[in-house]
Task: structure prediction
Amino acid sequence: MRRPSLRRVMWVSGMAWIVSWFCLGLEIFYWHHVTTTLHLNPPQVPHGYPRPRPGGFLLSVLAGSALAPAVFLAAAIAARAGRQSPRHRGTTVQQGR
Result:
């Protein structure tokens, strides 16, 4: 299996970062399932009904909004560390006499 290039990892994680934060904004300001301090805010239900739990979409949005920036930054740091500096490219270490 081929390893994904760092550029592809950065593109995919960057898009996941944008989409997850957009969906997190919808969860906070439009649907009101999450508070602005990122606490879950389930709707009120009558007594006797089971307490609502977060669904798969909300959990994936929370996980994506936390993990995608970390993956993007790790790939960006790895890509930057993998490039050689122009002043060090092609130079050899010379032994002192």
In short: DSSP finds two helices and no strands in the chain. The helical segments are 6-30, 56-82. The first helix runs from residue 6 to 30. The chain has a mean pLDDT of 88.
